[in-house]
Amino acid sequence: MQLVLSEDQELIAKTAADFVKEKSPVARLRELRDRRDPDGFSRTLWKEMAELGWVGIPFPESAGGAGLGLAELCVVMEALGRGLAPEPFLSTVLVGGGLLTLAGDESACDRWLPGVVAGETILALASQERDSRFDLCRVSTRAEVVDGGFALTGEKTQVLDGHVADALVVVARLAGEVRDRDGLGLFLVPRDAPGLEVVRQHRLDDRNAALVRLQGVRVPAEAALGTPGRGLELLEPAVDRATVGLCAEMLGGMQEAFDLTLAHLKSRRQFGVPIGSFQALKHRAADLFIEIELSKSVVMAAARAADAGDPELPRLVSLAKARYTDAYLHVANEAVQMFGGVGMTDEYDIGFYLKRARACQMTFGDAACHRDRWARLSGY
Amino acid sequence: MGDLEAFRAETRAWLERSCPAPLLGRTATAIDGVWGGRKWVPEIPEQKLWLERAAERGYTAPTWPSAYGGGGLSAAEAKILQQEMKALRVPAPLIGFGLTMIGPTLLQFGSEEQKREHLPRICRGEIRWCQGYSEPGAGSDLAGLQTRAEVDGDHFIVNGTKVWTSYADLADWIFALVRTDPGARKQEGITFLLIDMETPGISVSPIRLISGSSPFCETHFENVRVPRRNVVHKENAGWTVAKALLGHERTMIADAFGASSAAPGPRRSLAQRAHQYLGAGPGGRVADAVLRDRIARIEMDTRAFSLTMQRSRDAARAGQQPGPESSIFKVYGTELNQRRYELLVDIAGPQALGWEGEGFDDEELALTRDWLRSRGNSIEGGTSEIQRNVIAKRVLGLPD
Question: Are the Cβ atoms of B328 and A319 closer than 8 angstroms?
Answer without folding.
Answer: no
